[in-house]
Amino acid sequence: MSAKAARESAVVLRGPPGRLSAVAPLPAAVASRDAAHGAAAEISILVAGAEPEQVRIRGGRGQGNAQELRVRLAPSTPPGTYEGVATVGERTVPVRIEVEPAVRLRAVPSRVELRAEPRGTAAVEIRLTNGGNIPVDVPARASFCLFDGGGIDHAVWAALTTEPPKGKGRMDVLLDDLAASHGGLVDVRVRGGAGSLAPGESRTCLVDLGWSDRLRPGRHYLGAWDVAGLRIPVRVETASKAPARSRSARSSRRTA
């Protein structure tokens, strides 16, 4: 068989490294009772540069001898096209594996809870691990919004239970109340660990968070820092406003 004919007749598997699959005609040797019930069949695949960690065949995915072939590669296998052969008994079938880009970023801790004051700052350490097959970028500067945890419920309640001011409708009341629950933008600065994170690499990032002056006392706010598609939830609590001292107490302190 010519190289061109082999490529045209090859079983083509596409997907991210951990979930490559194809439905294609395979030699009758694998069309066993076990294969029809989803058990692993006797088959091996040899592909230069992309050694499979697992090969499985599932029957009942097509007509005739068409079956579903599933292959799992190492998560860090780079995107690209890999060619090789599948061996079934004494027969071989050409295969082509087309690995797609896969982003799989993990964070420890997976969520952040902090105390905050208007115009204040906080520092956290977050360890990021790139479990995908392409580099991801950790930006040195970013921002995200904070919203009062009960802001949406309160805005809906206000819109439904209060009479809108003259010239406004209930939707105006809803939006005005939502705007009041906005805790402003959080300024994110990664002063240690920013830049490209290679597949398989882990790095501890030192992150400074700067709060807005829109934070109100005695509230809790929710937001999320987005890094390469991974949303890291951030929950912020503000201290209750300290009770004001009475005039007589202040006077007594001055004369003491």
What is the CATH fold-level name of the largest domain? Immunoglobulin-like
* Low-confidence blocks of residues: 1-6, 31-41
Structural class: alpha+beta
Q: Largest beta sheet: what is the strand line-up?
A: 8-10-15-13-12-16-17-9
Major sheet details: 8 strands, mixed
CATH architecture of the largest domain: Sandwich
Overall mean pLDDT: 79
Structural Rg: 29 Å
Shape assignment: elongated
Total number of β-strand segments? 17
Summarize the structure.
Helix content is 16%, strand content 45%. By secondary structure, the protein is an alpha+beta fold.
Q: How is the secondary structure organized here?
A:
Elements: H1 3-9, E1 11-15, E2 20-25, H2 33-36, E3 44-47, E4 54-58, E5 66-72, E6 80-88, E7 91-99, E8 105-108, E9 112-116, E10 121-130, E11 136-138, E12 141-148, H3 151-161, H4 170-180, E13 182-192, E14 195-197, E15 202-210, E16 220-227, E17 230-238, H5 247-255
Parallel strand pairs: 1-7, 9-17
Antiparallel strand pairs: 2-5, 3-6, 4-5, 6-7, 8-10, 10-15, 11-14, 12-13, 12-16, 13-15, 16-17
Protein architecture, described:
With 256 residues, this protein is an alpha+beta fold. The protein folds into two domains: 97 residues, Sandwich (Immunoglobulin-like); 134 residues, Immunoglobulin-like (Sandwich), CATH 2.60.40. The protein has five helices and 17 strands. Strands 8-10-15-13-12-16-17-9 form an eight-stranded mixed beta sheet. A four-stranded mixed beta sheet has the order 1-7-6-3, with helices on one face. Strand 4 and strand 5 form a beta hairpin. Helix 3 runs antiparallel to helix 4. The longest helix is centred in the middle third of the chain and has 11 residues. The radius of gyration is 29 Å and the shape is elongated. The N terminus is likely disordered.
